[in-house]
Write a structure and sequence with these properties.
By secondary structure, the protein is mostly beta strands. It contains 2 helices and 24 strands. The protein has helices at 281-285, 349-352, and strands at 5-13, 24-31, 37-44, 55-56, 64-71, 77-83, 93-100, 111-116, 123-124, 130-131, 154-158, 166-174, 180-181, 193-194, 197-205, 208-209, 214-215, 224-232, 239-246, 273-280, 295-296, 322-325, 331-337, 384-390. A hairpin with a 5-residue loop joins β2 and β3. The longest helix has 5 residues, at 281-285. The N and C termini lie far apart (44 Å).
Length: 391
C-alpha cells in the first residue's frame, strides 16, 4: 500500500431475503499521486470473516470520492460517488453511479446522475498555494479567515423492502445565481468567487437516473452542506428523512465568507446547526415530493473553526453527519459538535498568528510555549458526537 491512501468508506448489508441476502459490501476511495483517485469495492459472503480481492469500480474516471452504497429490493447494488471537475481536462462536477446485478461480483460502466457547480471552500496560502482549510502560522491564508474543510458531497440510500427499486440521492452544491466576488482569496467556486450552498435531492429508479436534483429547502440565508438521507417505515407509510449542516443562524452569514467567520476574520459565534426535513416515499416516487418545512434538530448551535489540529494551528471537521431510520418511520440523527471545546490562548501568537487577527477567538486551550502541549485532554481538542431522535 506504499503511496496509496484509502479513505471515505461506506458499508452496507443485503437484507432483502433474496439470493444475495447476508452479503456485506464495502466501498472506499483510494488516493494515489496528485488528484488521481478511484472507487474500490470488496464484498464478504461469510459475515465479514473473509473478503474478496478489492477492485476498481469507477473505471477510467478519476478524481472521485465519497462513495455510498445502496441495495434495492431486487438485490442490485448501487454505488454513488462524486466526480470532481478536472481543470487539466475540463469536465463538470457530477454525481455518478454504477450498478452490480450479480451480488457485487461485477459492476457496469459509470453513469452520470446529476451535474452541478461545486461548493468547495478554498483559499490561498501566503506562498500562493491552494488551501482547502485555513488556520495559523504556516497554515494561514491570505484572506485572514479561519475555516475547516467543507465541500460538495453525495449520500444515497434505498428501502430494501420496496419493490419499486428506487435509490434516493442527496448532494449539496452551489445554488445557481448565487455566485459573487468575495473581494479576497477565499472562495467556494474558485478563489475569489463565493456562493451559497443548498441541498439537492434526486433518484435512481430501476437503474435509470432521474437527472439533476431539485433543491430541498430554498432558504435565502445560510449554507447547507454535508447532507445525508435515509428511508424506512411501514410498507404503506414509508418516510424519507434528510439532514444537513445549516448556517442560516450565523449572524455573519454571507456567500463571501466562510461559515463561522465575520468579515474581519473573527469568530461569529454559534454559526452551525443541524436541520432536517422529511417526505412520504409514496409522494416522492409519484413525482410529487412534498418535503416538510425544515426544522432544527440540534438544540445548541456550534462553530467548527476551532484550531485543534496540526499542533493547534488549524480546524478540521470530518463528514460526520448521519441519519438512520426505524421501523415506525422515525429516525435518529448523529453529528459532530464543538459545544464542549474549551477556548484558550495560543502563547505562540506573536509568531503563529501572522495572517489573521490576533483576537480571532478560534484558539483552544493548550499548554506550551513552542512545543509539547501538556494538556491535550483538558478540553481544547474536544469534538463530540451528539444525537437526537426525529419523528
Amino acid at each position: 500500500m506504499l503511496g496509496k491512501f484509502n479513505d471515505k468508506t461506506a458499508i452496507e448489508v443485503d437484507r432483502t431475503g433474496g439470493s444475495c441476502d447476508g452479503t456485506v459490501y464495502f466501498a472506499y476511495a483510494r488516493f494515489t499521486a496528485g488528484k488521481i483517485s478511484a472507487i474500490w469495492f470488496t464484498r464478504s459472503t461469510d459475515q465479514g470473516n473473509t473478503w474478496s480481492s478489492p477492485h476498481n469500480i469507477s473505471g477510467t474516471v478519476h478524481n472521485v470520492q465519497f462513495p455510498d452504497i445502496s441495495i434495492t429490493h431486487d438485490g442490485h447494488v448501487y454505488v454513488t460517488y462524486r466526480q470532481y471537475g478536472d481543470v487539466a481536462a475540463p469536465s463538470t462536477d457530477s454525481v455518478n453511479f454504477t450498478v452490480s446485478q450479480d451480488c457485487g461480483r461485477t459492476f457496469g460502466n459509470s453513469q452520470t446522475l446529476a451535474s452541478f457547480v461545486h461548493y468547495d471552500a478554498q483559499d490561498k496560502t501566503a506562498t500562493g498555494a491552494d488551501a482547502r482549510d485555513c488556520g495559523d502560522g504556516a497554515l494561514a491564508c491570505q484572506s485572514g479567515y479561519t475555516f475547516f474543510r467543507q465541500d460538495s458531497q453525495v449520500r444515497s440510500t434505498a428501502d430494501q423492502s420496496d419493490p419499486n427499486n428506487v435509490v434516493y440521492v442527496v448532494y449539496n452544491a452551489t445554488k445557481p445565481g448565487t455566485e459573487v466576488p468575495t473581494g479576497t482569496t477565499y472562495g467556494t467556486v474558485v478563489s475569489g468567487t463565493g456562493s451559497q450552498s443548498g441541498v439537492y435531492f434526486t433518484r435512481i429508479a430501476n437503474g435509470v437516473g432521474q437527472g439533476n436534483g431539485a433543491i430541498v429547502d430554498n432558504e435565502s440565508t445560510g449554507h447547507q452542506f454535508f447532507p445525508d438521507v435515509t428511508v424506512g417505515g411501514p410498507a404503506t407509510a414509508r418516510v424519507i428523512h434528510l439532514i444537513w449542516y445549516d448556517s442560516r443562524e450565523d449572524s455573519s452569514y454571507s456567500p463571501t465568507l466562510p461559515n463561522g467567520d465575520t468579515a474581519t476574520g473573527t469568530n461569529s459565534g454559534l454559526a452551525l446547526n443541524v436541520f432536517a426535513t422529511k417526505a412520504s416515499e409514496q409522494g416522492v416516487d409519484s413525482g410529487a415530493p412534498n418535503f416538510s418545512q425544515a426544522g432544527k434538530v440540534s438544540e445548541l448551535g456550534t462553530n467548527g473553526n476551532w484550531e485543534q489540529f496540526s499542533s493547534r494551528s488549524i480546524p478540521f471537521a470530518g463528514d460526520y453527519l448521519w441519519v438512520t431510520s426505524f421501523a415506525d418511520g422515525s429516525a435518529y440523527v448523529v453529528w459532530t459538535s464543538w459545544r464542549d471545546t474549551v477556548a484558550g490562548t495560543d502563547s505562540r501568537a506573536s509568531s503563529n498568528e501572522t495572517s489573521e487577527p490576533a483576537d480571532e477567538n478560534f484558539d483552544v486551550l493548550q499548554c506550551w510555549t513552542s512545543s509539547g502541549d501538556s494538556c491535550q485532554t483538558a478540553g481544547g481538542k474536544d469534538q463530540n458526537i451528539y444525537g437526537h431522535a426525529i419523528p
